[in-house]
Amino acid sequence: xxxxxxxxxxxxxxxxxxxxxxxxxxxxxxxxxxxxxxxxxxxxxxxxxxxxxxxxxxxxxxxxxxxxxxxxxxxxxxxxxxxxxxxxxxxxxxxxxxxxxxxxxxxxxxxxxxxxxxxxxxxxxxxxxxxxxxxxxxxxxxxxxxxxxxxxxxxxxxxxxxxxxxxxxxxxxxxxxxxxxxxxxxxxxxxxxxxxxxxxxxxxxxxxxxxxxxxxxxxxxxxxxxxxxxxxxxxxxxxxxxxxxxxxxxxxxxxxxxxxxxxxxxxxxxxxxxxxxxxxxxxxxxxxxxxxxxxxxxxxxxxxxxxxxxxxxxxxxxxxxxxxxxxxxxxxxxxxxxxxxxxxxxxxxxxxxxxxxxxxxxxxxxxxxxxxxxxxxxxxxxxxxxxxxxxxxxxxxxxxxxxxxxxxxxxxxxxxxxxxxxxxxxxxxxxxxxxxxxxxxxxxxxxxxxxxxxxxxxxxxxxxxxxxxxxxxxxxxxxxxxxxxxxxxxxxxxxxxxxxxxxxxxxxxxxxxxxxxxxxxxxxxxxxxxx
Length: 531
Ligand SMILES: Cc1cc2nc3c(=O)[nH]c(=O)nc-3n(C[C@H](O)[C@H](O)[C@H](O)COP(=O)(O)OP(=O)(O)OC[C@H]3O[C@@H](n4cnc5c(N)ncnc54)[C@H](O)[C@@H]3O)c2cc1C
Fold this sequence. Notes:
- By secondary structure, the protein is of the alpha+beta class.
- The protein is built from 18 helices and 21 strands.
């Protein structure tokens, strides 16, 4: 009874994706999830059961942007209840002067908005957007492919060179220079080259450094520009960003339903304490209650640090490997503050007759200077009071998330240290909640008095609740030295691990974090090829 072809540790969206493809290939799969709910960082949960029962929101990830169309189609997520509405505007910043600046799906409307600040910038904006999209198209195919195998030699090494070379056919000298700038340059320096208006630059800033480790003046911070132009959603539209009806949990509920229909068994409330191996080969898992389950194939959806430093017996890995894992950059830098309101948020400058799709989205983005200062403070364990707060009033288009007369507002906050220099997050939790509400109140003055319930999820709470080491939302920073054939570690980018039969499938592997399904898809296909 206790024997499966494969065990997937963790029911995050990548674990579910891997489980689905393996089951479709005929394997008997068991998914074990430590929480009482499947979905990992893509879940919809109650915010404050004491003060506002029945009001739910996407407690962690909150926008669907790069979910792969292939995964949506193969898992028939639409048939299993997934409904996404394209965000329009895709982005909108609220400015301290009591104005809002939206980035519409319609180019002419966006041009008009940007022209309020600079006609020249409005023209440049679209030329640049086109150039960036064309550059992003070179990277796109690598999303659902393993990264180059740098260890391959002989004929397979040659085939790898040809595979990668073909992808970059047509990349001329200027484009190579552009690509290098994006991957290595700072966002501020890049934008200074093209734009004169602070507001236009801040609109672009607002979309490009979420959850990333680095301030806008740091080398490598321009990279986000390309990532956000990768495609996603049902139609694989470049730069797609969507609101999910029912919250992000609707994605993983649909995935779990697809898995169940494919014969996968999913157990929640089942924490894996140890991944067992014998003579360097995966043999099964032991649950925290002591149960042992055998399988020769184990796929871990947990992040690399959790997998190798906590779940695998230290004797089974060599010390150099463990040292490299420990050195993966992860800490922080984000939190969530989820609020229940008894009034709708009224942002200064928002047209009163604006559609719900516009009213629901507003980013309170700092200046470049402040963003960098906040990042630097966080690096030193300090809590900068001027935070960057991204707000989504989710019940505006999805009233079922809230009870009668209530509204749910989810906010993503950065930059914060994982480990405060003084005190602990348990002591600073209320400070964070109060701070975020105060900042929102500067732009939407009615909000502070309208708060009737809240759930403040500090970086430490992200780790405790969602099982993500050091609260890192991407299972490892998105930075050049931790991407592509270096994710999670050089030499281990093909989802395999030093233990035969143990694979990784989560966001800590190529191509990285976000609700994309890509690591899960790639891991499953690598496993099937290896078999
Ligand atoms: C606050 C926050 C905001 C974000 N916002 C966005 C956003 O708006 N859009 C976007 O695209 N991405 C966003 N992200 C990133 C995105 O959610 C993640 O990168 C992605 O969900 C990771 O998916 P995963 O399946 O690889 O891992 P996870 O979702 O982390 O799932 C891993 C699962 O493994 C389980 N697990 C771990 N250890 C064990 C064990 N020992 N036994 C059993 N189970 C175990 C965990 O409980 C978890 O369920 C956000 C993330 C966070 C935290």
